[in-house]
Design brief:
415 residues; Peroxiredoxin-like 2A; 8-stranded mixed β-sheet; cytoplasm; PXL2A/B/C; alpha/beta; 16 helices; 31% helix; Glutaredoxin; 8 strands
Length: 415
């Protein structure tokens, strides 16, 4: 998948001179930039050439073909016109490789992340007032601005340690909600001769994570910023990360792992949706290797990256101890892990094998203040992802709980 680096996205084309204006107007990351519509473009006085360039580069970014951006843009044609160029010309005039031509001409590939019409993205302009009833048929038709949160966040408990009757709740795409603690099933390994490591059934107590010591390695990526934090930041309590705003904490097993990179890329691609829900995105590493952080951010992840040196978040996922698995027993003899690897490999990501890779990761969704842990997902098999419909549902419930009745989660009809 294509990088989230703005410099790589705009290249040397017409958008390069527009970068300061994009930063000023709040179009400061790629997922948000890709949802601009004609009204948004006109609002910042984009030329037709710049509009065409953004459409072309968004299309290429979805297909991991950004290396052809400058040549295709220099041709001076719009995206529909380029898609009608014959394959021979695509190869001879633009140097597109034969294997890449099929990917370029495949118009059925999804462009952008779909967003439910009920989720209203914040207005781009701080001074602009938008009606919450604006119709949004898909993510590309949205006029968006980074959320400037003005809500007072609850400090009372969400009571997430209590049992909620929501395990059978159905989400729009047919996904069955698995509950507050979730994990993919464990399939038999080596005809049942190898048993998977046990996992916990209860959400981790909030007290297990609030005082974890973390160190911020990178800020949230924006246009024009330095690639990494130059000065070493002091350790801080983890509760400071979500003090004012709910957070998704993606605990990454190893940033060079192709399956970890795929999950991070897919989650960050949905950033405009999480912006609309008032949720911040944070990646948690348990090992600090400078080169690995630089390779991972912002190419595969543009959110904040923190270091959990004592691996306390990872221990919390395992009920107080690290969840570990061996390569042979946990991957080679595990059909689900192999399927996860093939899924990530199909996304055309690079990978390496540097760093510790046996400690399982997962995901937390934490409410603001002392609200508590709303959800946790455990990486039972190497490469398991928390289902995106499930993440979206929990984040939607968090948003509703703060807007309607602070300190509680709305029960499902079955509850």
């Amino acid at each position: 998948m294509a990088s989230f680096s703005i410099e790589e996205f705009v290249g040397n084309g017409a958008l390069k001179e527009l970068v300061p204006k994009l930063l000023e107007e709040g179009w400061d990351d790629i997922p948000t930039l890709k949802i601009m519509n004609s009204e948004d473009m006109n609002a910042i006085n984009m030329t037709q050439k710049q509009k065409d360039a953004l459409e072309i580069r968004s299309y290429l970014h979805d297909r991991d073909l950004m290396q052809y951006g400058d040549k295709l843009e220099d041709f001076g044609k719009s995206l529909p016109e380029l898609l009608n160029v014959d394959t021979l010309a695509l190869s001879s005039e633009f140097g597109i490789k034969r294997g890449h031509i099929a990917r370029f001409t495949d118009r059925s590939s999804a462009c952008g992340i779909q967003i439910p019409p009920t989720h209203v993205l914040p207005a781009r302009k701080r001074s602009t007032s938008r009606s919450p009833s604006v119709n949004r048929s898909d993510l590309l038709s949205v006029n968006s601005r980074r959320m400037q949160s003005t809500r007072s966040h609850s400090r009372s408990s969400l009571r997430m340690n209590e049992t909620h009757e929501i395990s059978d709740m159905k989400i729009k795409d047919g996904h069955i909600f698995k509950g507050i603690v979730a994990a993919e099933p464990a399939e038999p390994r080596l005809c049942g001769c190898i048993q998977p490591p046990p996992i916990i059934d209860d959400v981790s107590p909030y007290t297990n994570i609030e005082n974890i010591s973390v160190q911020k390695l990178t800020p949230e990526y924006k246009i024009g910023m330095e690639r990494l934090v130059k000065t070493k930041t002091p350790p801080m309590k983890a509760s400071g990360l979500w003090r004012d705003k709910p957070a998704i904490l993606l605990c990454i097993r190893r940033p060079g792992c192709i399956m970890c990179r795929a999950e991070a890329h897919q989650l960050y691609s949905r950033k405009p949706l999480f912006d609309a829900l008032g949720i911040q995105l944070i990646a948690v590493l348990h090992e600090h290797i400078d080169s690995e952080v630089q390779d991972f951010w912002p190419r595969y992840w543009g959110g904040v990256v923190v270091l959990d040196h004592n691996m306390d978040f990872f221990k919390a996922l395992g009920g107080g101890k690290l969840l570990k698995d061996k390569f042979i027993s946990g991957f080679v003899f595990n059909p689900r892990a192999i399927a996860n690897y093939k899924r990530a490999k199909a996304m055309r990501l690079e990978q390496n094998f540097r760093g510790e890779g046996e400690i399982k990761g997962g995901l937390f969704i934490v409410g603001s203040g002392k609200s508590g842990i709303a959800y946790q997902f455990i990486e039972r098999n190497f490469g398991d992802w928390a289902p995106f419909p499930e993440i979206t549902e929990i984040c939607t419930r968090l948003q509703k709980s703060e807007q309607v009745q602070p300190g509680s989660i709305e029960e499902s009809p079955e509850g």
